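ok trying again, last paste got cut off:
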Amino acid sequence: MEDIEVSLSTLEHALQLATASIPDLLGRIEALGDVLLVQLLPRACGGEIELDTLRGWIERLVCVALAVLKSPGLTGAEMDSANMLIVSLTSRSLIFAEQPPQVLKTTVKFTARVVCLAGNALDFSGAGYPMVELQLLSEPQARVVDNSTRVGSPLPEDGFTGGCCGQLANGTAELSFDHNTGCMAAGFRGTSLRSIKRGTSTRLGAGALAVTDEKFCLMAKTILPGPNGALSAVTLTRPIVVIVHGAQLNAARATVLWDSAFANEPRLPFEVPAEAPWATVARLLSDEFERTAGTALNEAQLMYLGEKLAGGGGGGVPATVSWASFKKTPLPGRSFTFWDWFCGVADLVGKFLQAPWSAGAVAGFLNKDDVQHLLGDRPPGTFVLRFSESALGGITVSWAGTDAFGLPQVLHLQPWYPKDFAIRSLADRLHDLMQLQWLYPDVPKQEIFPVASSERTAGLEAGSSYVPWGLANVISGAATGGCGGMAGNTFANDPDLQLEMPARSIATAGNVGLACATDIGSRAAPPASTHDIPDADLPELDLILQDLRATAPPPPPQLQSHLQIRVGHNADSGSMSSTMFPLRTQRDTY
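nice, full thing came through this time. structure:
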């Protein structure tokens, strides 16, 4: 920064003392202008340099150029060179100081701010303050503007090929002196896109560009005072994706995130690499998860995502990630893409699971093999929470249980979705299910999840004769699995009733049974082993179990949970009814 100050001061002294030739001065002005407008301007827009500092340097440089133009004895060639230099500096000084959102939804209002960094060095006294007009451009139209700006050629007077891409409301504003910032600026408030005209590449059927892949931009156009009359100045925003429905938001965000992270400037609008290094993609995913869910991802979680992008199978993370695998191509065996799945998980955590996720209570990024390894030797009732791999925005409970013969088995509950947590929280659902006792490895669920808070509806008025009711989550279908095969949810809905771990028992040589002991008001610690079987004739037991397995039906592939209405405490009689009324059943696959 000190070099810029020194260069400007040297130019000003050389002009004042006439110690340099006019061609030398113009060459030095042009070189310094490229440093300010090509190298430093992007950094100022990114917040690395104060924009006001850069504006002050550009204004001083334009003043020097104008002073050179007024020097006596200029030749015709020197005058033309000075004019062209001033026009170049002035037109390139028009920028978007405040960019519009990169995902624009039609009819939704947005704000933007255009600034002329050379404005205070220009004379607006003649024609007055000009108007700035916004126009939506397609990617091909943006390339025409970019090329004309680079070579200094005028824009086509009859408009762009293909006509206007969209109609804007409140798309004009006056470029005037802003007393708060001390610069020439035009502020756009309440601007919106009324309609959008897509390119032919999005309307050609098979192989067409998806609407959330199509990039636009806004162009700000105005007339500025030049050394030989008015001159046209334009500037472009960052690429924009236009959507018409909220369901398109996540796909549109993928387009702008990939563009922002991997575009190589300077570039032809809006070219972007088709592949990117995994390390850079990992940072993008972590930053996006933190923006949505509030917490960055750790190395193990990013490793899981990298393997998922690589197609799974334990092959490790990829060296590079393609745009197609990131957003376009469905995951193996699924109907959705990696980005769809990732956004579903991030949105679920951000809206409903921030507290347990931040506390480390949600393992999240685990597959079934990971869960089998973790829970294979844990006591019945030990569970983990992981994101569903086969459904969007779902979280499932996997827990150590037992099959119909009392042998260890890892079970997976049908996923819960945001619509479910809008009715009943995760903590309440976990408290409902007495099959779930210890969060892996051995943390009692009462210690990490708050006591059920939405079990009953709002309190009744004093003296009411109504019986209060509440919602409770129960497991339907095969009800084995939580505590050595305990059937149903006998005590699931009363936080005062806690369940001890069961002990497996062999009743007689030919009769295999399971016993569950209950203890009101207390909770036992998890047993040291999942195989606490009393002494018995083990060879004979093996034969019995083999016979039973051969004739018994296979266990269900999944267990479903649904809500039931529970009639609670009667305010007058003091009685407690245990009547349960099914409310609804989830039937999505996990």
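cool. The radius of gyration is 34 Å. Residues 360-585 form a domain with the SHC Adaptor Protein fold (CATH 3.30.505.10).
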